[in-house]
Specification:
301 residues; elongated; two-stranded antiparallel ribbon; Rossmann fold; 44% helix; alpha/beta
């Protein structure tokens, strides 16, 4: 295990995930097989399309006739090649730095992304990852090799300087969608604190491009329960605003606004036919994975 991977894939977490795979192999394989949506017709192997060669692709799949005509490398893809193409889009904006426990929202989201990539790669699927805020900060395309997990970890580590601006979902998702070569499973992991209209339009755009969508809404317990008591100063992470107040006087109004926000997000996800899950950062990683995979399995039936 590399030093970079230790931050997001702690030995204890890896042990739990490995145990999860053995304990829930039927669920995991059923989910991934169901999501492949194989277009098989009998046992035929039918040519589907060409795509431009990318570093790391198997040279045995290069169409040398096309290379001879165009002097460019292209890969042949067939309809029988139905392994899942998983793309993980992780929100790296400043609001994701909030933490009331040992893990910030970003650390939790990155751990979840690394774990999902680990599961996908271990089952022969292609996995890619990108970190975004008001722009795409780091990105690696989907690959099938198990060693590709190291590249995904590097992307999660290469978050860089955090922008003080709110998350710009639409331009980030538009830019990322243009790099995705074909339909697959796109998992967005974010606290969704930003332009709600932008995330709604971004989901619709990805859906129109044929992607299967999952939205994992990661929030801290403090944000969901508002447990504050006594004089408190709240400072914005993405805006230079602050408020000093008695939180008990704000609690009822805050929770009402929160429920309105969550209800709106669920409606936007449903309109985009996107599988939505709300996850607390206090929830153990393996529990969150079991719940997510079980939900996907039930939807695939």
């Amino acid at each position: 295990m590399t030093p970079a991977s230790k931050r997001f894939l702690h030995p204890e977490a890896v042990a739990r995930i490995a145990h999860l795979e053995l304990r829930a192999r039927a669920v995991v394989e059923g989910v991934l097989a169901g999501l492949h949506k194989s277009p098989y017709k009998g046992q035929s192997v039918e040519f589907l399309q060409h795509r431009e060669y990318s570093r790391g692709d198997d040279l045995r799949r290069v169409d040398w006739k096309v290379w001879g005509r165009q002097d460019r490398l292209y890969i042949k893809e067939f309809e029988e090649e139905t392994n899942l193409r998983l793309t993980l889009l992780v929100d790296g904006s400043a609001s994701m730095d909030y933490a009331s426990g040992p893990l910030s929202k970003y650390d939790y989201a990155a751990t979840l992304a690394a774990s999902l990539a680990w599961l996908g790669l271990s089952h022969g699927d292609a996995a890619g990852c990108a970190v975004f805020d008001d722009t795409v900060r780091s990105n690696v395309p989907a690959r099938m090799k198990r060693s590709h997990l190291a590249s995904i970890i590097e992307v999660l580590e290469a978050r860089g300087a955090v922008s003080p601006q709110p998350t710009a979902f639409l331009p980030a998702l538009r830019g990322l969608s243009e790099t995705l070569p074909r339909r697959g499973l796109v998992i967005i992991i974010s606290d969704l604190l930003g332009d709600r209209d932008g995330i709604a339009k971004g989901m619709q755009m990805l859906r129109r491009r044929g992607h299967d969508l999952v939205l994992l809404h990661v929030m801290d317990d403090d944000e969901l329960d508002f447990p504050f008591d006594g004089p408190t100063r709240f400072e914005g992470l993405e805006l230079p605003d602050h408020i000093a107040c008695n939180p008990r006087a704000l609690r009822a109004g805050y929770l009402a606004e929160l429920e309105s926000f969550l209800s709106g997000v669920r409606q936007d996800a449903a309109a985009a036919r996107c599988d939505y899950s709300l996850i607390r950062t206090s929830e153990p990683l393996d529990t969150a994975l079991v719940r997510f995979l079980s939900r996907r399995a039930s939807l695939a039936v």
